[in-house]
């Protein structure tokens, strides 16, 4: 199943502060000089199903790569006499692997963000930008799948979206840009080889006859998958 993201992101409120001055030549309308502002966004019914197939090369260290997804435009608005505001939600999926041989596998997660989660994007002081509710998102890993047997590796998957805000000021050569990025909970798994275990992956010894279940319920060669979770946030801005 291809990745999909559902839900709403709405602008609850926003403000831009600055000064308006008349042209000294009389040829232009008022000129707006920006010096700050803030915007608050809220999400509801927001969830993501991320299931990716990847082929990776051997690495002694944990290597990360990004699985690109298309940007999602959020309806913007025009402020008379000032300019246009255009938000963009940029989903980013980060996959990390540490493995001893080439491997093709499928892995991913289902994620749900609590309703009424909010994002404050502070244009005056980006360090004061914040997110509420997102760190409390629930996440569950999808089964790790690979056609290759007898493999040992560590794999992780995380959703690290960005909320970007572009402001195009009238009669100004400066376009403003600001954004907040945040790490939602991460899923990871360690896959290792085990032998002489039962269906609960408990060592029992004995003489199993192969990777499949035997009549005595013992596996002589099987894979153990150990899951784990974790999370964090950040922000940034710039002028262009």
Task: Please give a structural write-up.
Helix content is 0%, strand content 64%. It contains no helices and 16 strands. The strands form 2 sheets. Strands 3, 4, 5, 6, 7, 13, 14, 15 and 16 form a 9-stranded antiparallel beta sheet that branches. Strands 1, 2, 8, 9, 10, 11 and 12 form a 7-stranded antiparallel beta sheet that branches.
Which range does the strand content fall in?
Answer: over 45%
Structural class: mainly beta
Number of contiguous helices: 0
Shape: elongated
Topology diagram in text:
Elements: E1 4-21, E2 31-56, E3 59-68, E4 72-73, E5 77-79, E6 83-90, E7 92-99, E8 103-112, E9 117-122, E10 130-132, E11 138-141, E12 145-146, E13 153-159, E14 162-169, E15 175-194, E16 222-239
Antiparallel strand pairs: 1-2, 2-8, 2-9, 3-7, 4-6, 5-6, 6-14, 7-13, 8-11, 8-12, 9-10, 13-15, 14-15, 15-16
For this entry, give a set of tags.
240 residues; mainly beta; seven-stranded antiparallel beta sheet
Task: Summarize it.
Helix content is 0%, strand content 64%. The protein is mainly beta and 240 residues long. The two termini are 38 Å apart.
